[in-house]
């Protein structure tokens, strides 16, 4: 694939122009491992400053117009003010992420806790998140539960499912007509033995019971070794139950690397499923969100790079010659079919993305432009004193 | 737990007396790895001889009264004669296992093949298996598909699901009122990239669509590293979708070790879920089947040992003090709850099983009795010439 | 194995009487995951209180007479006073564990950092640990490096090895005649991409270069999925390079479960290698240490249980009929050899351990006795105010 | 990286021109999984026909001038004739691969077997392989042992190491001055429990004891999930103990996919270590060999594609700006260092490789040229009757 046909080129550029990636407020705060959080300078100290950072990412990439919030990390008194602040800076508020894992009460679980009082407390938080969605105009409630057990016997697997089911139903009933619940699964962590929503099957089964407003969200870092994630994408799309992605990458455990950093070919294969099912466009209702933390690397720059990684994988997926692929598949030509896919993957799409950015009136080099903008130096100077945002802050 | 209370003892013995484990005809034939099949002496040369071996296992264990067949490996002209032969020897014919993976046509898949002709051929085989079930009086059709792809792009994941779905529906419609379809999943192998039914979620989704006669079967050796199998047991039981088990064990890849050999604690935890949901008894409809091959070790002896391993794990699970466990769980006493479970696990149940065998009029030492019986020497002398049974034979 | 022969019984009891398990000071402080540390009541606030807890574990188990320290978590002005305090309570100070992973300077590595100033700082800490060993009389310096990289390209794998090698040599040269360096490896965490000492091979290669005072330590929770740990035990013993164990267990990632909790059969197999090489006795120089944290469960009670788990696995390993095993192995009798091993594993050794404790003048039920002792209620009442110990505290 | 500087371009082309990839004779024969070998038409029926196929690969790629043999699969009466036949076709005979895994005697092991007679037989085969090397002029003896055990207790891990060590020493002593022994390790398969050479550490330890002519070979498909292979490359290169590669790829288990097919980014990272240590050139003594089988896909075409995959990964590795990378690493600029690497990876090197082929007088499209050559049609017509080559054939 040396030269793109003009029609291909315009099709790909149009699709990339419409693509939307949602950033996460917590990516701009301090983070780390269980061993150490290495503090960075210039880190936001409140939700407004996080939104400024997110707006900066959008300013240089052009495809990241919303930012997800995490409650209570991003709790404010006046969400309308927060939304207005965001709007002024060119971005909007995205999904609301609940947090029922950082309170001493949740030691043995939140909505699955054997203690009814604690379950009620957790549920109240989830309902409060829907209240906040009403205030922010957010469409999606993203639910991740750290619930699980550490030791065999610690609690009844089945009873915990019953409690989970009950809580999900209560939240579901609270959702407005245009609101959705995105249920996340995670293979392991932080529970050591049982995870109450460990795989797509569990999330799917709950969402199916709940109804159309409940959808599964795939966090790309939340699978057992060797899992074929694009298979899950395909299967959930086929079932009409894929609500979105939490993008990140990982080699073995912690899921905080920039999406595409550990296995760019996997990201490409995932985006191929999206493109082939024609659900890239925003109106298809798949939320493409980043959920990663930047422990060692500069945060804003890493988020910009992550958005670009998603764009590059998408561009390659858009370049797959669908007709040639279908023909080779139908003919049982294993090598030809693989070759059609690899031809797109091997293509250097960076020139194309530079053109896209020029079309959008952006600098063709988002990272360079961000560095040259002086934004980081400014916030580093300004954001002195106060509490740097971070998990639990 | 030093002495069992008489009521506990009689409860446990009664449950163990009713337990049923189904053996597999192919476990008595030669098997191996992709590198080499090491032939053994005395191996059966036809389905009748396999049934003799299965009957021998039942004679010494008392809890293995049925044997599963594999079609076409166990194809005979007259299934009534085969059933009568089995009955004479004290056993019955169990599940019918289909085989759509050993024909050159199935190189790129059976029911998921892009070629409609091959799909039709595979479907015809599955329907033939139901015909055989009618003849043998078998309740369960066990479906395992080796279908998948080796290379990214080789075929459309989604189209393959559509084709799979279509074939399953056709087979389902062919089932009689008292017949069931057990759909097996497998994380990997023999396909290298996509497996068309790789996890319980995929099997569950298909079975849900099909209806009540479609159930998921858990092969204990078919999961990603780190998967919590007892969680899957619990979740399928809760959903009313667990049809049975294919028991075996493995350390990394090949799933052919004797059940309980690689991780006896895991087998115990699985049986704990069974016992706590009160579905051990045959009328609960969970089929407990062995599906393993004995590449290096003597086959009949290994099957006897496998049946005993299931019994031992079950006996331990039956010893769990359910009330104490529930109380500790409700109190959030992590160590006490774990300790209640471990107390049962650490108990040496072999004396109890010796008593059970005495009650059943069996030798208390099944392996020893089998060895002393001279059965192996007899068949070794008799089974000379002909083709030793094996995969594909 | 229903009754033990008197000679077996006395051999096993004698071996168990001599067994030594070292506890870890940090197991008594607060700990958690990257998401949350759930605080417990009664947690020690300084090294002295940690030693009191460790002494309590020894009081009820009789086989945990030393406690490992972690520097700087257990830094005190006067180590002689700390040692005297320990001695008064019936325990001694054990291995010194260094910490070069919780300083902002170590963000990109400690002894492998590209910056020479930071490498020098890390080395100075390691040398200080040897100074402390001189003061405490500790034999072993345990080195675990969190060093690694998160992203491909971040640093040169080879240069980092060179820097590591240089630092290890400098520390080695500082060791006294009766001091040893135990080098730990860890498959992953907290680095996401490269871990500078990820496997036994790397640790072994460095120790071989260094000399006899450098030995490998196996942390049972630090391996890739599917790794055969007892193989590593055997191979390091054969090479004379096994210095000891950090015991704990895990299902997938975090290595903080009580040893034997996740896979008791694995622990048994590990102890079988120890017993068969006759290196259980303290004079063989293998340090058996616990390295685990108790996030959800009561800490002292969990450490007692962990010591008991090691004892139970050891007792079973001691029961293996070595002659019968060797004969079956030599005869190529796969099932008989496995059966000899399993016979020991299935034995309930708890009565034997109760007898051992009676012989030692201990309560036969260490956990029960500890609970009845009122120790926990006392410290809970006393340890109010101050800073609860924990990682980084 | 839009345009290559002329000096870069000529450096990269020169390096690629000198690159050598060795093909494997067995890649041209039939192969499969333990479930089924799907036969292909036109498969060679003897070593001469395999060499013709290998020569065809070289004819279209220009960088695959040698072919490895497998004994006894490629046993012939007259190796000089075989070598002459190869030479005529433009290729040479490469490494000799031993086979001590396909004889009934090796059921419980070859050189590690508890039976001395079988060990002697296995050793005799290895020595015979050196005899064949003398006849073929091969430099390298590649040793892969399928030895291991299936069940805990089956055999003594340590005794097996002693027996392995003894056999290796005997073979080592038999090597001529210009001959080497390449010892391969494999994480699992075909043994289910213990593998006698499971990791690089074990292979390394044996090679270190043996001496300079013993080197470790890395098969890219032989590692635990999550293993960082490029780390092993770096560490073995640093130790002077890397003898070569067996290239292939895999997703979970079977290691037979075309190299670079499952994770092209990993292959690139491996080649980066090779390039950065300047050991790409043949005189550095690293053997770059393919070891993969093509179960579903056409074999010759797949081998051509595999050679091209190695070339593409190498070309990208050669494009890494080493000075910029070193500077970013030294500065601790995590994102910049990663970016330098990714810049090379994202480059489309296919135009460069087309130029290389033009320089070499080859068609710029090796797969297309091969297809157009009619070679496959010819051999399909000719190779009728006889026994198609395959494992064990």
From TrEMBL, chains A, B, C, D:
* Listed name of the protein: L-rhamnose isomerase / sugar isomerase
Q: Per its UniProt record, what NCBIfam families does this chain match?
A: RhaI_grampos (TIGR02635)
The Gene Ontology biological process annotation of the record reads: L-lyxose metabolic process; rhamnose catabolic process
Query: A GO molecular-function term, please?
Result: L-rhamnose isomerase activity
Q: Where is the signal peptide?
A: none
InterPro entries under this entry? L-rhamnose_isomerase, Rhamnose_iso-rel, Xyl_isomerase-like_sf
Show the SUPFAM superfamilies listed in the entry: Xylose isomerase-like
Write down the species.
Asanoa ishikariensis
The domain of life is Bacteria
Alphabetically ordered keywords of this record:
Isomerase, Manganese, Metal-binding
């Amino acid at each position: 694939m040396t030269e793109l046909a003009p029609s291909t080129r315009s099709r790909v550029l149009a699709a990339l122009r419409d693509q939307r990636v949602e950033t996460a407020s917590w990516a701009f705060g301090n983070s780390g491992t269980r061993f150490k959080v290495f503090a960075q300078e210039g880190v936001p100290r409140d939700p407004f400053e996080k939104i400024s950072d997110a707006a900066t990412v959008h300013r240089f990439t052009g495809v990241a117009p919303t930012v997800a919030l995490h409650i209570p990390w991003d709790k404010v008194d006046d969400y309308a003010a927060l939304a207005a602040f965001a709007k002024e800076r060119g971005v909007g508020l995205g999904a609301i992420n609940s947090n029922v894992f950082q309170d001493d009460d949740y030691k043995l679980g939140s909505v699955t806790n054997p203690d009814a009082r604690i379950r009620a407390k957790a549920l109240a938080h989830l309902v409060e998140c829907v209240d906040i969605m009403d205030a922010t105009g957010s469409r999606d409630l993203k639910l991740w539960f750290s619930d699980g057990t550490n030791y065999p016997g610690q609690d009844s697997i089945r009873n915990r499912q019953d409690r989970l089911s009950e809580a999900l139903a209560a939240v579901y009933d609270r959702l407005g007509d245009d609101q959705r619940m995105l249920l996340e699964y995670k293979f392991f962590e932080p529970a050591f033995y049982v995870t109450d929503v460990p795989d797509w099957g569990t999330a799917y089964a709950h969402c199916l019971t709940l109804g159309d407003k409940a959808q599964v969200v795939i966090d790309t870092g939340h699978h057992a070794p060797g899992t074929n994630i694009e298979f899950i994408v395909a299967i959930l799309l086929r079932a009409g139950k894929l609500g979105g992605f939490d993008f990140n990458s990982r080699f073995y455990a912690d899921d905080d690397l920039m999406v595409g950093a550990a296995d760019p070919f996997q990201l490409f294969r995932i985006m191929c499923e999206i493109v082939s099912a024609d659900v890239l466009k925003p109106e298809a209702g798949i939320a493409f969100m980043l959920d990663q933390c930047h422990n060692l690397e500069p945060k804003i720059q890493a988020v910009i790079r992550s958005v670009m990684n998603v764009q590059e994988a998408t561009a390659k997926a858009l370049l797959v010659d669908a007709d040639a692929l279908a023909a080779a598949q139908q003919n049982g030509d294993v090598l030809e079919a693989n070759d059609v896919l690899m031809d797109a993957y091997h293509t250097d799409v960076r020139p194309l993305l530079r053109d896209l950015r020029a079309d959008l009136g952006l600098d063709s080099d988002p990272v360079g432009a961000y560095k040259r903008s002086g934004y980081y130096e400014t916030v580093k100077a300004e954001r002195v004193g106060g509490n740097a945002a971070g998990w639990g802050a």
